[in-house]
Amino acid sequence: MANQVQALYDFTGEPGTTEMTITCGEMLTLINTDIGEGWWEGRNSKGQTGLFPAAYVRKLSPEESTPAKMAPPAPRYDQADDWSDQQYNAGDNNYHKSTSHDDGWDDDWDEDTYSEIGPGVPHTKAMNQQAPLAPLPGMPIADYNNQIDDSTSNFSSVGTVRKSKFAPSSKVSGESYLLGTLNVEVPDSDKVYIVQEGDGYMWAAVSQPYNVTVASPKKESKFKGIKSFIAYQLTPSFNNIQVSRRYKHFDWLHERLQEKFTLIPIPPLPDKQIAGRYDEQLIERRRVQLQEFVDWMSKHPVLAKCEVWQHFLTCTDEKRWKAGKRQAERDNLLGLNYCISLVVPEKALLQSQVDHITEQCHTFVSSMDSSVKSVTNMCLAQTKRFQAPYKTDCQKVGEAFYNLGNALSLDEGTVISTSKLTSAIKLTGGAYIKIGRMYEEQPKYDWEPLGDKFHLYKGIVGSFPDVLANHKAAVQKKRECERLTAEHKMEVAQLNEVLRRTDVISYALLAEINHFKQERTVDLKATMQKFLRQQITFYKKIVDKLETTLHQYDE
Amino acid sequence: MANQVQALYDFTGEPGTTEMTITCGEMLTLINTDIGEGWWEGRNSKGQTGLFPAAYVRKLSPEESTPAKMAPPAPRYDQADDWSDQQYNAGDNNYHKSTSHDDGWDDDWDEDTYSEIGPGVPHTKAMNQQAPLAPLPGMPIADYNNQIDDSTSNFSSVGTVRKSKFAPSSKVSGESYLLGTLNVEVPDSDKVYIVQEGDGYMWAAVSQPYNVTVASPKKESKFKGIKSFIAYQLTPSFNNIQVSRRYKHFDWLHERLQEKFTLIPIPPLPDKQIAGRYDEQLIERRRVQLQEFVDWMSKHPVLAKCEVWQHFLTCTDEKRWKAGKRQAERDNLLGLNYCISLVVPEKALLQSQVDHITEQCHTFVSSMDSSVKSVTNMCLAQTKRFQAPYKTDCQKVGEAFYNLGNALSLDEGTVISTSKLTSAIKLTGGAYIKIGRMYEEQPKYDWEPLGDKFHLYKGIVGSFPDVLANHKAAVQKKRECERLTAEHKMEVAQLNEVLRRTDVISYALLAEINHFKQERTVDLKATMQKFLRQQITFYKKIVDKLETTLHQYDE
């Protein structure tokens, strides 16, 4: 029974993957705890096997042999607030590759991503104390108890929020904005302008452009090294002060942004499914995808200046961080209500024109969605092809030549000297083996960065249908108001206000459509050029290698 | 029962292939007659399925429903003597790709290769008339009967000679030469010299070097086009007169050469297993391998001047052909007896030195045999990789980019012009699809010629163990004679003659070992250089294609 675990929460496995759906209280037999990334493999009572998050189950003691339906205990203990180490110490080079997987990386990435500063998940002290999970292996009891006492705010319910998406609440439906019942004064500094450019409308450009670098992630630790985690070092160009952020902070930020901007696609965070054979590779891929995220944020005229992002980018003080966090979570200019911050051209929009553009956008986005996914998949497939069969094929070629050279060297000398030839043939073999290794190395220069870029596009494009739906809902509300006015159930003055505000929402959509177009036109060009240059360099390297080899045959 | 056939002969399927062993009289159910190259697929009574030569079975008429063990009937009718069309008419451009497989190509290549001018297969007129197979489809009965009457000499037993190897007979054991009982005067013009060069011994060089080109094969026909076959056009440089030879003539020649030269590896004829998806490709590969065969022949000091080869290369007259053929088949200087033509240095060889060289050769040849086979297999594998997965992968890359360009083109124009970018991305897609086709085309420039060359080496190297064994047998005979002399059972004078003649045989072996070494040293160098140049050209073409594509992104 040592291999028996009990599900603490419901978990819905993603269809078509190796994930398995488990139900709270269900008994499972452990098959493999060595999956990594916080996943375990098990078998349920029906004999089905699959992966589930390790944190969603508890190991049973030998005594607990009779499966019993239990009330779900309180969620797993999360590491203590690590915000104190948020400011990265530049001299601190404490990144060490750990051989253990119990290093906080998994849960940092996986279940804990919504913890600590996450919103809306109810948790009480009582609940926390009900049945906390065992502390991490190797943690002294005293430390553990300490943490229980002072880390109340760090508990989160891992069982309910995974894969949660922002669900609209009354606070963010935008009806109060649309109907003019929202009475908020937006300070001038927070106002966002939409301007006409040619036939179209654009967000007013970022007044002070900046960029942010995401530096090589460092493994940091706390509790005297017992608990370690990966932190990314962000340096904005406007102040050159580095801040250290964990994935869970990114994730908290991402939720705030998604709540607030329902007409602006928020760039995606790194793909949880990134494959990497080495931790270093995995961490680097995540860094690249985080860099894509911050690049997109910094270049977006609205997102680049929004308060929560600025707070995330610059805050180095724990007290100020908490204050900013509370303020962000109290923000009531969410969803369509955010539009009260917008200053748009006076001109009323033609509904027919807006409809035409949104329909075209809809068509474009559906087509783009499938082609962006296909580029992403293709990059993944090519990476695998380069790293396995292409490499292996080259090595087989190399081995065949090398063995030929070896065979020939058994009959060298005497009458006709063949040593020059046999050595050239062996070198040819070596060259192909080397080319095989070049194939293995290559994806990190072309297919992987291309895939990372298209991960970004997949996220942006995938958010557009929601953006269009949010806009459509506003247009429908407007039509409803028009009907009410026709039926004399609404004042003309109020309708005019609704019309005006619907126009603001449409202006925002049009500006966002154009922003995406402008960004991708510049960005995709640079992406394709960079990709092609890397490909050219690669094939040139093969040519060079083969030319050097050919010269071995010269007299 | 229309699909029932009966085996006319025993056929032993090669283990590990799709071939199936069938036994004379056995009933089989036909599964597929569309295999090509003279093979059919069937199922035996045990339910086993596999391929067997179509010529080894007869189709049963609907009446013959009861399987009955029959005496094997006479072999299948072979096409009439086509020697009259041996001289290729340069103006005759009658090569047409036939869509039918009943065009005489299959049997020309396959079962009939040993027919017509093949030796030693007993056949009588009575046997021929016993139960001839049905004529080829579409052949008028009158023609068919005519042929039966005038083509007696064209029957051969296909059931007994397939895959036959030269089996030594008393005529070729060489004992008569070794024991000095062979009394033949070799005219000076036929004498072959072995000369000392440095520490080693070599065949005296070809006095008048020449080469022979094998031109694009032509499909020729007879019986007013009912029967057609492939003929290869050979032009020796010494007279520039083209002769036309079918595969069966090559095959006859090859048997003569193997009978005559048991100390010289005879280059192999084309691989029967050559894979080609189109007939043209198949025919061209065979031509290339025949070119390798004639090149090796023409460069070999002994083979290049031997009578049967000269006859094969130059005879354009039917009567003279038949006379030459009879003469070649009556040749009694076969096997070791051929050594009577050799003129070697006076110096007696040290047996220990000969033993050392033959042992080294044995070691070298075993190692070479496996590495040559591995290069051959590698070339075949690479050809397949280039033509299928590599091509497909490139095309998938191309399609992903092309579809991306297509998606982007749905949102062109208005505020930001993206047409330049979308067109560049589509062109990038096109470039990768083109590169895919380049991969498909490439093997005929590098992997296939390399494979053809190593097919030659596989044959040569594969013959060396027999060569070494033939030499070893002579040395053992010599030792026996030494023992007999020690026991006073043989005269010292006769022993001295045996010793002298064993030395001649050893000189021949040493000369041949050195010849192979000399040839391969020059030839492999040229082969590898040619191969590498083709590879370089290929990867340069990819670089060019990608560079052109990259320029599409320029403003």
From TrEMBL, chains A, B:
Pfam families found in the cross-reference section: BAR_3_WASP_bdg (PF10456), PX (PF00787), SH3_1 (PF00018)
Keyword annotations of the record: Cytoplasmic vesicle, Membrane, SH3 domain
Matching CDD domains: BAR_SNX9_like, PX_SNX9_18_like, SH3_SNX9_like
An example molecular function term from Gene Ontology annotations: phosphatidylinositol binding
Residues in PX domain copies: 210-320
Name of encoding gene: LOC112048700
Source superkingdom: Eukaryota
Residue ranges constituting the SH3 domain according to the UniProt record: 1-62
Family, as annotated: Belongs to the sorting nexin family.
Record localization: Cytoplasmic vesicle membrane
Binding residues annotated for a 1,2-diacyl-sn-glycero-3-phospho-(1D-myo-inositol-4,5-bisphosphate), in chain numbering: R246, K248, R286
Protein name stated in the entry: Sorting nexin
Region named Disordered: 62-106
Alphabetical GO biological process terms: endocytosis; endosomal transport; mitotic cell cycle; plasma membrane tubulation; protein transport
GO cellular component, one term: cytoplasmic vesicle membrane
InterPro entries: AH/BAR_dom_sf, PX_dom, PX_dom_sf, SH3-like_dom_sf, SH3_domain, Snx9_fam, Sorting_nexin_WASP-bd-dom
